[in-house]
Amino acid sequence: MKLQKISISVFLVLILGTWTFSFGSFISLMEEHFSLARGNQSPTTFSSADQREKNTDLRFLFAESERFLSQDINLLLGASDRETTLENYLIDGENILSSLNYLESSLINEESTITSTRNTCETQLNQANTLYSTSINSNDENGFLSSVESAKEARTCIAEQHVNLASLQALRNKRDRYAQIINARVSYLRNNQDLIIRHYDILKPQLLSNLYKISVDLEQSS
Fold first, then answer.
1. pTM of the model
2. What is the DSSP letter of 91?
């Protein structure tokens, strides 16, 4: 089961769109996530909880998720040390899931912050609209100019938060998809681990052929 890759060009457009704005903790969060955990080093397997928490950058986690899902299960289970190989594979998947869940908490908190900022901007826009109407009716030039500037600031802020939320949702959708598929694979293999370790060889064509021949020979000799 292979997760369909999201076009990197579309993904980067969504993210880079937020960088045209000059403020907000969301920008810092994205810059932090998109700074590879160890400079330009290639992604490596998680080896500890400490390393897992340090390596929650998006590119690293998505690359690790793709690597995990792209491994040939049949080849992996056909190894001579199947028990150890399978256990290491499951631990790898569980560590990736833990990091994806850790990342999700961060994204949820950031979404709450962005939504709160957007709501504040919408309140500012409503106040500016009210001041605009009052100033027009009372011929208050200062109030009129102030309301126009305030409305422009509020609309810019609302537009920024709209882009931030859309970008964040794209990241969450990708994270959710990886987490869903990895969790399903790990859970299935973990639940059937003992059975797989003991009897997976029975699926080999030569062994099945030999077992069938033995069955036929026994039937003919009875």
1. 0.62
2. H
